[in-house]
Every structure is written in structure tokens, then in C-alpha cells.
């Protein structure tokens, strides 16, 4: 900018429609009032013709996926990964429960999580966000989002509620711990191969959670029981039944209290086939 401030610019192109223009401006005005340390700040916007420009604060460390699967793979230690997992949960809890209207992000994934100078997470890209009216438990809407992160009730029935974000968040937890993409088929030893969610569930069933952990992590640098507990929180988030998934404020509490999971056990995700 003229004052020397570096910002991030996102350009959108909309089809000509008066309703779309009004919806865009009303949602941008709303999101510009969202202030939380784990949400990327929208600084402003421009509107001209079919073009829409969104101006965000700049995150020089780019997105989380670069640190898990890309050029910076292996550089995040366990404490940093835990802080990322907790920070995302806090940001989503704010959107779902603490802001004056409920906002469902709809596209929580690793490349929509940006990292600041201290590698703290900030949820970005509200381009697909939906507002949930106070008098409704869910919306029925055209499915948006990203393959591998989309909750089954949303993908199959178009039923959108906060628990869709919870499901996506659970997938992100497992990716952060494993360093593996949810959509990547991994061949292990003589196995016929498994996707991340399948692998996580199978290892949980035989109490071998720690085999899921990214092999770039030093085993002496993390507490095994803590990692197992957070894997189980991830599995709670991706349960087939949306009703059984915890809400985001509950997840924040579970992440910080090691004794609360003793009487809570996850059920099998819908994408897992029992043998």
C-alpha cells in the first residue's frame, strides 16, 4: 500500500446479478467486523463491474499445507502442531458461538489455514462462508467445499450445520499429526493401501495410534499419551453422525484437559468400511 503496509489481495469475479452484489457487500461488511487472533483480518474491499477485490492482512509464512506436505515439510515440531490445532479450534468456536451471528466457514482445510510470524494459525478464505439464522438448526444449500474435508451429511444431502466445520476440522487434526493428505492413498508394507481416515480408525481400533504420527517428528519431543488423546479428538470430530460430534467450544476444552476423554469414545466414520 502507499503507506508501505504489505497486504494480501484476492480477486473474485461474479456473474452480473443485483442480488449477488448485495449479498457480497452485506457479507463482506459482516466479515469485516469479525475480530479474533485466529482469524485472518479482512482490511477492506473494492467493487467494480464484475470484479470484487478483497484485501486481507498478509501472512508471510503462507499456509499450513506447505508445512505439512510442501516445501517446509518436517519443520513443525509437536508443540507448534498442537498450537495450530488449538488455535484453529478457538477460531471456529468464535465463528460458531461467540460472534453475534453464527458463521459456518464451509471450507476448513490446511491451505485455508495461514501461519503468522510466530507460526500461530489464522483461518482464512471466507468466500464460501454461510450465515446460519438464529431460528434454524441448519441450511439446505448447494454443496461447496473441498473433496476429502466435506462432512457426509453435507456432501450427500446438502444439509449444512456447524458440525460440517467440525468434521473438516477433524480431518485437519489427522493431517497435522500424520503429515499425510486425507485424499492420498498410502501403501504400507503388505497392506492394500488406506486413506488417512481409514488408517486412523484402524490404528485406533487396535490401540496403535502412534503409528499415525508423522515420521519427521522426534518421538522424544512429544508426550505419547497427549498425541493419542488428540488423535481421538480428531476421530470424535469425523464421526458419521453429526449429532455425536462435539461442538467447537467443547473441543477447545477437550484439547486443554487431559482427563475429560476418559468416558468418551468415538464411533466409526461413515467413509470406513468394516471388514
General description of the model:
The protein is α+β, with helices and mostly antiparallel strands. It has 2 domains: 7-57, Phosphorylase Kinase, domain 1, CATH 3.30.200; 64-256, Orthogonal Bundle (Transferase(Phosphotransferase), domain 1), CATH 1.10.510. 35% of the residues lie in helices and 13% in strands. It has 8 helices and 9 strands. It has helices spanning 18-31, 64-68, 78-98, 152-157, 162-178, 196-205, 224-237, 248-256, and strands spanning 7-13, 42-48, 51-57, 102-104, 113-115, 121-123, 130-132, 139-140, 159-160. The strands form 4 sheets. A 3-stranded antiparallel β-sheet has the order 1-3-2, with no helix packed on it. A two-stranded antiparallel sheet has the order 4-7. A hairpin with a 2-residue loop joins β2 (42-48) and β3. The longest helix has 21 residues, at 78-98. The protein is globular and about 55 Å long. The N and C termini lie far apart (58 Å). 35% of the residues are buried. Residues 132-139 have low confidence and may be disordered.
Q: What is the CATH T-level topology of the largest domain? A: Transferase(Phosphotransferase), domain 1
Protein structure class: alpha+beta
Shape: globular
Helix content: 25-40%
Overall residue-averaged pLDDT value: 84
Entry keywords:
Transferase(Phosphotransferase), domain 1; single chain; 275 residues; two-stranded antiparallel ribbon; Phosphorylase Kinase, domain 1; 3-stranded antiparallel beta sheet; alpha+beta; 2 domains; 9 strands
Amino acid at each position: 500500500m502507499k503507506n508501505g503496509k504489505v497486504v494480501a489481495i484476492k480477486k473474485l469475479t461474479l456473474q452480473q446479478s443485483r442480488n449477488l452484489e448485495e449479498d457480497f457487500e452485506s457479507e463482506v461488511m459482516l466479515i469485516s467486523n469479525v475480530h479474533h487472533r485466529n482469524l485472518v483480518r479482512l482490511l477492506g474491499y473494492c467493487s467494480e463491474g464484475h470484479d470484487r477485490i478483497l484485501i486481507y492482512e498478509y501472512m508471510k509464512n503462507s499456509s499450513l499445507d506447505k508445512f505439512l506436505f510442501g516445501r517446509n515439510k518436517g519443520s513443525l515440531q509437536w508443540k507448534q502442531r498442537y498450537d495450530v490445532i488449538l488455535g484453529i479450534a478457538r477460531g471456529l468456536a468464535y465463528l460458531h458461538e461467540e460472534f453475534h451471528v453464527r458463521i459456518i466457514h464451509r471450507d476448513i482445510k490446511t491451505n485455508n489455514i495461514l501461519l503468522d510470524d510466530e507460526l500461530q494459525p489464522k483461518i482464512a478464505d471466507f468466500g464460501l462462508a454461510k450465515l446460519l439464522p438464529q431460528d434454524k438448526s441448519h441450511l439446505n444449500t448447494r454443496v461447496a467445499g473441498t473433496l476429502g474435508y466435506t462432512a457426509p451429511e453435507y456432501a450427500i444431502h446438502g444439509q449444512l450445520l456447524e458440525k460440517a466445520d467440525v468434521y473438516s476440522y477433524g480431518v485437519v487434526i489427522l493431517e497435522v499429526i500424520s503429515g499425510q493428505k486425507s485424499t492420498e492413498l498410502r501403501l504400507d508394507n503388505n497392506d492394500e493401501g488406506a486413506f488417512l481416515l481409514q488408517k486412523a480408525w484402524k490404528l485406533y481400533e487396535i490401540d496403535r495410534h502412534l503409528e499415525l504420527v508423522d515420521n519427521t517428528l522426534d518421538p522424544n519431543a512429544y508426550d505419547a499419551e497427549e498425541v493419542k488423546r488428540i488423535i481421538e479428538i480428531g476421530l470424535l470430530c469425523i464421526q458419521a453422525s453429526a449429532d455425536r460430534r462435539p461442538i467447537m467450544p467443547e473441543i477447545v476444552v477437550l484439547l486443554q484437559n487431559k482427563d475429560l476423554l476418559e468416558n468418551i469414545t468415538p464411533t466409526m466414520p461413515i467413509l470406513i468400511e468394516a471388514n
